[in-house]
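step=encode ok
step=design start
structure_in=
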């Protein structure tokens, strides 16, 4: 599938900003055998005094921008064309949970994609006993890691309500779990916490979801904003497999990845510091259009 992606993020400040520095991660990445970025352009208004682009530890495209000139608004625009492979569902070659622990123990790699980085608690995903217990019940009897991860994905979709008003970007997984409500970020964090509690390495994926569904299929939740889902390490033979608990599916050609990390903190769209006072209003719009 070939997609044209348009993203606009705008920030209107109550008071003039006299200086600022931001780290932006919104540009999609090329992933061999999965997706290829044909073209990508990122622009800012007003124009920053300094712009630097680099790849972070996990291989995500990160751009730093710095302002000295006073301004009262910031707009970020991304346009990209990305080709996503329509891959067949994977054959289950994953081990049992017990065998997975042995495979991880024998793996010495600490490269960015190593499962060792995705086993322990991370800044936005502590290991919560209540979530671990929930995950254990959801995957009870699962013969393989792939079946277990899929079972937890389906359980979260079944038991949690999609409610954009229930949580915000700072909501902790334990709070979203107690509410049984939230958005894609919350569902991803709860699933990551549950998988890690079971000893399955899991990470957070940020990206886009196509806005127009295939003929005869319903519209997917989260399609007009940036989306989030989960990657789970399913053993040495399968590697990383991605799951979307918001929509109860395995990630496929409708999902366009910006990148991944241990949790939202590693791949948040924008973070930074400002020299100002008061608050700001943030808006975001996303279009993901198939190229015919």
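sequence_out=
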């Amino acid at each position: 599938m070939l997609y044209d992606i348009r993203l606009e993020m705008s920030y209107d400040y109550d008071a003039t900003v006299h200086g600022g520095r931001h780290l932006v991660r919104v540009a999609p990445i090329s992933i061999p055998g999965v997706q290829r970025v044909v073209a990508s352009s990122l622009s800012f208004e007003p124009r920053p005094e300094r712009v630097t682009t680099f790849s972070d530890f996990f291989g995500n495209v990160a751009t730093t921008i710095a302002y000295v000139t006073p301004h009262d608004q910031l707009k970020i625009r991304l346009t990209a064309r990305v080709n996503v492979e329509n891959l067949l569902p994977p054959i289950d070659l994953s081990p049992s949970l017990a065998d997975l622990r042995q495979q991880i123990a024998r793996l010495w790699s600490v490269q960015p994609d190593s499962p060792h980085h995705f086993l322990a608690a991370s800044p936005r995903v502590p290991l919560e006993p209540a979530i671990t217990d929930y995950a254990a019940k959801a995957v009870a009897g699962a013969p393989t890691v792939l079946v277990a991860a899929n079972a937890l994905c389906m359980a979260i979709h079944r038991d949690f309500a999609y409610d954009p008003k229930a949580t915000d970007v700072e909501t902790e997984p334990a709070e979203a779990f107690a509410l049984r409500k939230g958005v894609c970020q919350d569902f991803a964090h709860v699933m990551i916490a549950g998988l890690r509690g079971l000893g399955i390495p899991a990470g957070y994926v940020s990206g886009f979801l196509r806005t127009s569904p295939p003929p005869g299929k319903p519209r997917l939740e989260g399609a007009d904003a940036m989306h989030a889902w989960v990657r789970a390490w399913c053993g040495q033979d399968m590697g990383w497999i991605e799951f979307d608990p918001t929509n109860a599916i395995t990630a496929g050609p409708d999902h366009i990845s910006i990148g991944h990390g241990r949790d939202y903190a590693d791949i948040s769209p924008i973070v930074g510091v400002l020299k100002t006072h008061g608050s700001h209003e943030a808006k975001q719009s996303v279009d993901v259009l198939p190229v015919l």
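step=design ok
step=annotate ok -> The chain has six helices and 15 strands.
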